[in-house]
Specification:
about 450 residues; Chloramphenicol Acetyltransferase; Dihydrolipoamide Transferase; eight-stranded mixed sheet; OB fold (Dihydrolipoamide Acetyltransferase, E2P)
């Protein structure tokens, strides 16, 4: 019987390490080619790794929760096939693509997308599902677990009475708004220190939290998405001079348009929200002020400003695994319906932790929808490689002066942070004013 060793591949672009989140197999299990072996978390997203060969699982060489560097062994698989080499190691080619040495097969399903379809577990392997009696597909149940949603409390809207993705996401959004209605008690712990993890060896087994003698402090390692996000934000904050501007907006007509779109047969199968109008407004305003969509580039011959004539629209997404900023490529070419569909797909994929590294690269400008958390405004940090980020605050009814009379209107705040090396104050102000104009009168999009 031969033994084959599988080395952790680079499933993104230049990623150096990943965390073992969950093994999908155990020693003694039989696996076929493309069966999912393990779920890992990189600095970009969750990825399922398929098996490059069939056989019987031997040893799991990394514990769940361990951080493993690319190229380190993570699992062995025994193969009793006649004529096979005694020891086979699956690793990476000089180009970073996974390959099999000593006559093994090239891995299937890897690349910048890093996403593969999970095999169905045998009945004995399936975890006991919560919310017994609720009709929901396995991916929906996983989404509910990740978002902390009790499926039994979700009102189903599927044609067969099943819980859909929209049902789970809607329930989670509503719960987040009311999560802090009750004031929590002060705990016994006064402070908590979360240091940035230093360089790691090939395999680091997860250590239990190390409280001090009095149990008053706890140290938690920073890794995965959180580690990548913190590094990018520090780089941006200390390399680009940020300037922020904002304005209040009467978004009543935007809310009326959203209501009409929801009732339209053309949007019957698509989730529509004010974010859709905001996205169209940003695309429209960026065309009128191209510098907000530009980038500062430090080149060998000196710094230069790269103006993009296209919009890869980033949407900041708070996910169970941290902040992700996937973007919609060439958003300027999409119709209203196509943009709504793209936003829906982007949001659901991000919340499921399945955003690929390619979907998070080459963004040109970003929207952060802090309104879903009940916030009015903020001064967001620019995404690296971009020169502008726009924040949409919560939309709520407030007294507003219309034609000399105070009336209840739906009001929001639009804020933006910009790289002052690339764009001056007049350009920032003009851009935010344009976005506000669209939210006040979406009919301007017809121009």
């Amino acid at each position: 019987m031969s033994t084959q060793t599988f080395l952790l591949p680079d499933v993104g672009e230049g990623l150096t390490e990943a965390e073992i989140v969950q093994w999908r197999v155990a020693p003694g299990d039989s696996v076929a080619v493309n069966d999912v072996l393990v779920e890992i978390e990189t600095a970009k997203s969750l990825v399922e790794l398929p098996s490059p060969f069939g056989g019987v699982v031997g040893e799991l060489l990394a514990d769940e929760g361990a951080t493993v560097v690319v190229g380190a062994p993570i699992i062995t698989i025994a193969d009793a096939a006649a004529g096979s080499p005694a020891d086979v190691t699956v690793g990476q080619s000089e180009h970073g693509a996974p390959e099999a040495e000593a006559g093994g097969s090239v891995l299937v399903g890897y690349g910048t997308g890093g996403q593969v379809q999970s095999r169905r577990r045998k009945p004995a392997e399936r975890p006991v599902a919560a919310s017994v009696g609720v009709v929901a597909k396995p991916p929906i149940r996983k989404l509910a677990r990740d978002l902390g949603v009790d499926l039994a409390a979700v009102v189903p809207s599927g044609p067969a009475g099943e819980v859909t993705r929209d049902d789970v996401v809607k329930h989670a959004s509503q719960a987040s708004v009311f999560r802090n209605i009750e004031t929590p008690e002060w705990g016994d712990v006064r402070e908590e220190t979360i240091p940035v993890a230093a360089s790691r060896p090939a395999v680091v087994s997860p250590a239990a939290p190390a409280p001090d003698a009095a149990g008053r402090e706890e140290t938690i390692a920073v890794k995965g998405v959180r580690k990548a996000t913190s590094s990018a934000m520090v780089q941006s904050a200390y390399s680009a001079p940020h300037v922020s501007v904002w304005t209040d907006v009467d978004a009543t007509r935007t809310m009326e348009l959203v209501k009409r779109l929801k009732a339209s047969p053309d949007f019957a199968d698509i989730r529509v929200s004010p974010l859709l109008i905001m996205a169209r407004a940003v695309i429209w305003a960026a065309r009128r002020t191209p510098m907000v969509n530009a980038a500062w580039v430090d080149a060998e011959g000196g710094a230069e400003i790269r103006v993009r004539r296209y919009v890869n629209l980033g949407i900041a997404a708070a996910t169970p695994r941290g902040l992700l900023v996937p973007n919609i490529k060439d958003a300027q070419d999409l119709s209203m319906r196509e943009l709504a569909r793209a936003l829906e797909k982007l949001t659901l994929t991000a919340r499921e932790g399945k955003t690929s590294p390619a979907d998070q690269q080459h963004g040109t400008i970003t929207i952060t929808n802090i309104g879903v958390f009940g916030m009015d405004a903020g001064t967001p940090i620019i995404n690296p490689g971009e020169s502008g980020i726009v924040a949409l605050g919560t939309i709520r009814q407030k007294p507003w002066v219309v034609d000399g009379e105070v009336r209840p209107r739906y009001v929001t705040t639009v804020a933006g942070s910009f790289d002052h090396r690339v764009i001056d104050g007049d350009g920032m102000s003009r851009f935010i004013a344009d976005v506000a104009s669209i939210l006040e009168e979406p009919a301007l999009l017809l121009d």
